[in-house]
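Dear colleagues,

As part of the handover before I leave the project, I'm documenting each prediction I ran so the next person doesn't have to rerun anything. This entry is a single chain, and its sequence is reproduced below.
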Amino acid sequence: MSSNNLSEVFTAIIQPIVEAAVWQALKNNSNEVRLGASGDRAFVSIKEAAAISGLGSSTIRLYIRKRLLQAQKVGRRVLIN
């Protein structure tokens, strides 16, 4: 088996596990975000979403790019609901 095929198989196995962990982390922490500094805050930045979920900013951007995570661009900022 070539290393290219091995990496594809590994990615296919790991990707659903990581996606499930991201969604669970965002679901568990959604109440904390909504009750944040402004009280009724429904949107967070990429940096805040990364801190809440325990993932890196680049991972959050990847999920937005793959349309696994909904986001809106407001001016130069990208906000996640």
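The domain at 3-80 is CATH 1.10.10 (Arc Repressor Mutant, subunit A). The radius of gyration is 15 Å.

All the best with the project,
I.
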